[in-house]
Amino acid sequence: MGDILLDVIDLKIHFFTDEGVVKAVDGVDLAIERGKTLCLVGESGCGKSVTCRAFLRLIANPGRLVSGEMHFRSSTNGTIDLAQLDPKGSAIRDIRGKEIAMIFQEPMTSLSLMHTVGDQIMESVLLHENVLKPEARDRAIEMLQRVGIPKPDRLVDEYPFRLSGGMRQRAMIAMALSCNPTMLIADEPTTALDVTTQAQILDLMLDLQRQDNMTLMFITHDLGVVAEIADDVAVMYLGRIVERASVDTIFNAPQHPYTQALLRSIPKIAMQRDELDPIKGMVPSPYRRPSGCTFHPRCSRRIEACNRIVPSVTELAPGHTVRCLLYENIQETEALQHG
Amino acid sequence: MWRYIARRFAYMLFTVWVISLISFILIQLPPGDFATKMVSQMLSGGAREVPPEVEAQLRAQYGLDQPVYVQYATWIGKIIFEGDFGYSFTYKRDAIELIFERLPMTFTISLFSVLFIWVVALPTGIYSAVNKYSLSDYLFTFVGFIGLAVPNFLLALILMFLSYKFSGQALIGLFSPEFADAPWSLAKVLDMLKHLWIPVIIVGMAGTASLIRTMRANLLDELNKPYVETARAKGLSELRLLWKYPVRHALNPFISTVGWTLPTLVGGEVIVSIVLNLPTSGPIILESLMQQDMYLSAGFILVLSTLTVVGTFVSDLLLAWLDPRIRLQ
């Protein structure tokens, strides 16, 4: 692999609720390459959003970062382990918005309706860069122009509730990019938009990414979006990344049974089929996660050991890893886990 | 925006009119009137018998023999065109004089109570919400509920006792005896401020307690909104983002209830005012209602409710200024 911007090792985030502990993220390893687009894919509740919020240390109570390392190559301060930073401290605040920016799912509620678009964009600029208000305002207008908002010098003083959903998401992107971040995390930024607007926003994000050579981490459960934008794909299931490969490999030669089932479940126009082919069973309750490989109760290729042994990460080819007992030496793993 | 203001203003006028009508009718509802009252006073005062002619004459003299709507029309007409609020039968003075004697004090206590409520409730509510389920949150909740539950007059008695015990001087009324009838001066104002804290705390206590709860609940709702996370993801510090975003959003109920302090003060604090011997409007309204001194009570109710409605109008304007969603839609 090339130049790694963010290297996540064995990340665990657990939520300590009154009903019990929810292991939302339970041992995620993920290397994010500079300048590439990585798509994090998975069903609702698999821990995608929690994982990427952890990068910015945005996990709120009762969630806690239990263990793990997140080595980030800062453009100014060398390599920082984000997991070691105080989530309320100034070190992480300097990274938020400036080096790693984030776009959220709901443009309606993710912007404050009581503050103008310009005010909310200028805020980032004023916070991270040594500029005065007029300059920050010019930057806000310039950013709005870049994201394709018409009449940016007028819209800068507009309140978000007067904009359409697509325009709001554009404003959100303008806000995130206003300080030229090294990395942009987008948490399902197109889910709340209609299909036409979705396509426009995706194109816009890809354009901006290429222009700035920005690293993009894109969270989605829409495999169509993945096919369109991703360089690499990480497939997540119940708090673990089960397969990680280039976008071509994921779509053409997926190895993990979950990835395979996920791709089978997409209806294809070219094929005549009367019924959908969903993944069998339900996503288990977060409080009662299956033992061993968490996917084994729903897996069509499961073997005897699957409910006992937690699969470890196996590298099938350079850049292609999978977490499945079918691809590893079971005796060896068992000896490791029980010995 | 102007349409919003115009509409609110029209509502305000309409509300005041309805209030004047209802209050006038309500005052007429109890059996008997001031003439009956006077006759019964004469009887208990030693007169053996009051002839019906005298009673009728009294009635005619005060215009009480006319139908209610005529009385109302004369009353409201005089108020609008001559500023004449009628005559107080019990005090034998113009009602307007009595009203304006009492109103400034009512207003002062009201104003200071609002300030007290805000200064205490706002930070406490914010602190409670941010540190939800902490020891101090439970403590504030506990104190707040006590403040809500303890009757105000009891609190008044306790504070009076304490002030007497520790300063050797009962802080009753708003002025020390030497200032009570003195003309206004700096010394008198200072004297008033010295006495003011007891009624202000007592009157503000229940309001503070409930506003702490409101602020806490509102802010808790806002703290989990996505825009807060957006602000945090930008790198804002906790304190700055708290004040700029969720607090600003949670402030609406504070603003919209500013106008309501006056009626609670007048309605709920009559007993406190009597216990503390405060020259506010509560006791005199109570007395005028008992004496069936209709023009005085109707006048008071009209003026106070008008002020309340104006207060609500002002808070509507403040709300529009604060919240662009109201201003621009």
Structural commentary:
The complex is a heterodimer of chains A (339) and B (329). By secondary structure, chain A is α/β, with parallel strands linked by helices. Chain A has helices at residues 48-55, 90-95, 107-110, 117-128, 133-146, 152-155, 165-177, 195-212, 223-229, 247-252, 257-264, 330-338; strands at residues 4-17, 20-33, 37-41, 63-74, 78-81, 100-103, 183-187, 215-220, 232-237, 240-246, 314-317, 320-322. In chain A, the strands form 2 sheets. In chain A, strands 6-7-8-3-9-10-12-11 form an 8-stranded mixed beta sheet, with helices on both faces. In chain A, β4 and β5 (78-81) form a beta hairpin. The longest helix of chain A is centred in the middle third of the chain and has 18 residues, at 195-212. The radius of gyration of chain A is 21 Å and the shape is globular. Chain B is mainly α and 329 residues long. Chain B has a domain at 102-291: MetI-like (MetI-like fold). Chain B has 17 helices and 2 strands. Chain B has helices at 2-28, 34-44, 52-61, 68-82, 95-130, 135-149, 152-167, 186-223, 226-234, 238-244, 246-250, 252-256, 261-268, 270-276, 281-290, 294-322, 324-327; strands spanning 87-88, 93-94. Chain B has a two-stranded antiparallel sheet with strand order 1-2. The longest helix of chain B is centred in the middle third of the chain and has 38 residues, at 186-223. The chains are: A alpha/beta (339), B mainly alpha (329). The A-B interface holds A 56, 58, 60, 88, 90, 93-98, 101-102, 104-106, 109-116, 123-124, 127-128, 159, 161-162, 172, 175 and B 224-227, 229-238, 244-245, 248-249, 322-325, 328.
